[in-house]
Q: What sequence folds into this?
């Protein structure tokens, strides 16, 4: 199972920085490749500002984008994943709900 952390949003801001996070939680050791991206819309449309990836065998891990400068505006996290276990290959992708951050949210 792969999902955003925090649930449905995947976007967190603190100390002037913002990141996107996805969490992998498998019932057994699984070969998984996950790319997490963070997009920002300050009024000109969404564009990617940061990414992070994991490629390895895991049961439980968290993938976080590199931190980006936090500005007022709308943010969205997304991930794509490919998992291989027991001869099966599963692909999954998801885009989070939009998170609107204020200047105060960025300074927390």
A:
């Amino acid at each position: 199972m792969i999902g955003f952390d925090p649930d449905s949003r995947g976007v967190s801001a603190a100390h002037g920085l913002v990141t996107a996070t996805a969490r992998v939680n498998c019932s057994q050791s699984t070969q998984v490749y996950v790319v997490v991206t963070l997009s920002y819309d300050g009024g000109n449309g969404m564009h990617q500002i940061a990414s992070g990836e994991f490629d390895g065998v895991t049961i439980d891990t968290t993938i976080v984008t590199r931190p980006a400068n936090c500005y007022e505006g709308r943010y969205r996290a997304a991930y794509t994943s490919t998992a291989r276990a027991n001869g099966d290959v599963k692909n999954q992708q998801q885009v989070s709900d939009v998170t609107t951050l204020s200047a105060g949210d960025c300074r927390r």
In short: The beta strands are 2-4, 11-14, 17-41, 47-64, 68-69, 73-85, 88-95, 99-101. The mean pLDDT is 94.
